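Appendix B, Record 12. Input sequence as logged:
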Amino acid sequence: MKSVKLVPPVQKNAYYETTCVDISHEGVGVCKIDNYPIFVPGLLVGEIAKIKVIKVKGRMAFGRLVDLRTVSEYRATPPCPIYQQCGGCQMQHVSADGQKQLKYERVRQAMERIGGFTDSMIHETQAMEQPWFYRNKAQVPLGKKTDGTIVAGFYRRHTHEIVPMTKCMIQHEANNTLLTRTVELLNEHMCSIYDEQTHTGALRHLLVRHGEHTNEQMLVFVTRTKKVIELVKIAQQLQTEFPQLVSVMQNINPDKTNVILGETTKIITGKAYIQDYIGDVCFNISAQSFYQVNPIQMEVLYKQAAALADLTGNEIVLDVYCGIGTIGLFMAKQAKHVYGVEIVPQAIEDAKANAKRNNITNATYVCEDASVMMRQWQAKGLHADVVVLDPPRKGCDEALLTSLVELAPEKIVYIACDVATQARDAKFLAAHGYELHDVYPVDMFGQTFHIESVVLMTKK
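Logged structural output:
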């Protein structure tokens, strides 16, 4: 039997008046004409608008906002002058209350549609009072204008064209200032800039980090070549002007790739890390360390996770995907013992050093695949009272979840930067003897469509 080819009810370059009925997981407005979806950036639910269809692609189309006929109560005026061009933010046109509500709905819908949880307790989104200039880390590509001027910025949406930027509204002000001055010095020294089309040139990216509680800064030059003679002079000049710049590094990435950092990092001047605190626990943060980008909301998130764990001092805690030990060491004083596992060797070395620096003796860290390690712990008779999961965006694989179910902890506290994969994994756990309780959205990423969430699951 032949399939019937769908004939879209809209045409490319045609104009339509339509109503936004939903928001996608990427913060894009969803309109429908004859039940046919059209994705239109910048639209909010309930708004009626004139749009132009710019692309028709089988079962969906993409449009551009031409004119608003009605305006949502949640609409705001973006303060950033390059918001419409830059791809770094997606939600500056949404008010703070609107972002809280949209992100709550995103979590609710994921838990319901993906996880099948229709009666879970989803709490109000916990957001910053002033969600601006919060990011402690920036990674910006370098490029050249047609006149040869070196620029840094973020990519225009859906392209690799750099939108020059001197003041990002969600980057810490100290990072903005350091980046701007660094680009000035790159121009003064007429440095060689990488061209991704020809795979020539030296400097690819700049990476900066800032310690919220220490004010220490790190600058990393990401280069294609090992030797860039101007970098020592530039580093010395910057350290003279910025006393808080305690670490200037070079990361070498010779590959033709979209991955920002290469495997080799060396010190140009200063030390190999900056320090920062979560609560009263001090952490060393290197160029490649995973560390939450919003330090203020990170404490909100970790305190919420600790509250769900509800430790009394007698529990064995497993910190899975432990990274440099942030969440486990934050909880260690309330636990009997913390065991952390992570597959990245440098992260485990950092976790051990962070435990030692803070005189935390009840934490053990192991470099291993987490699912393998949990089976080994179980074979040795280790019983876990609480398991804390904080996986990457792709979530947990089935092997890990199966090992977790076999280990049978009383509580699972699952922190996620992607609620869709969290809902998927929670569905698996619910089918294998666990019950979902509270869900807490925590907005770590104001002005963007991302949302972090932490959930509690207990053994039935």
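The chain has three domains: 15-68, 100-129+296-459, 137-278.
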